[in-house]
Fold this protein.
Amino acid sequence: MEIDGACLCGDITYEATIDPEKVGICHCTDCQINSATAFRVAVMVPAQDFRLLTGEMKVYVKTAESGNRRAISFCPRCGTSIHGGDVENPASYSLRIGTARQRHQLRPRTQIWHRSALPWVDEIGAIREIEKQGSRKR
């Protein structure tokens, strides 16, 4: 499937060819912290199938629980995380689905690091829903 996406400010844009069956949720604590939320939704994409169209990403290198070093690439202007991968010569990237224009079509098929999932995640459907945030009156 062909997808395209951008960071929040639009400086970083990309195209990628992905397999939608490989979309997954990661509940690891690093993804919780880096995404500033309960989990990250991503898809593995071979490096040759990811094309950076505009911008230049900044890279943060972290050491995972396994001891492996991982490069997290993000927009230096707005901070949007675009993908993660090996530090040197990555064969593939973990592309952040929230940046894809087609994200509504990309349903996760797996959940990894579920042992780290926040206890309320499996009950999210029971939480009160509000269609959109109202404006503040001054």
In short: Helices lie at 29-35.
